[in-house]
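Form P-L/3: holo structure prediction, ligand magnesium ion.
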Amino acid sequence: MTLNMPSYSVDWVTQITPPMLHRMHVKAILLDVDNTLSPPDSQIPFSGTIQWVQKMQNNGFKLIILSNNFKWRVAPFAAQYGLPYVSFALKPLPVGYLRAMSKLHVRRSETVAIGDQIFTDILGANLVGLQSILVTPRITEGSASFLRRRHWEQSIRQELKNTGRHISPKE
Ligand SMILES: [Mg+2]
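OUTPUT (holo model):
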């Protein structure tokens, strides 16, 4: 395993299903916010994501929001989902992942991290020893460094497709 490689990828967080997570033997989900559940810095959830969280909870999964953004941004957003949260998580450092798992009382082996960025969400999950699912960001940010990073991430997304680890709804 390389540190920049997620376990799986999907186009859209709502395509992640209970059977998929059962196959990964996970019970708990650490959820990124910006570009995973909403546009960056927006309080408006992506369509269907509140219902998706409820569906996951109804299927017995524990969820927590894990975001590098500030408390003033994350707290009201998490409240819309009724979820606990860890803000200013400092991903990819392990500290936020460990705090989130301790809040949920779950172990690494039963936890998956979900997010749109390899340099933060996925690298951090791999450093901590968690499985991870990469989602496709919906909103393109404009800065040159961001665009370079996205370009580099494309090669990883392509490799996931080539190795059958990009899960599409038809699967
Ligand atoms: Mg993000």
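COMMENT: The domain at 8-162 is CATH 3.40.50.1000 (Rossmann fold).
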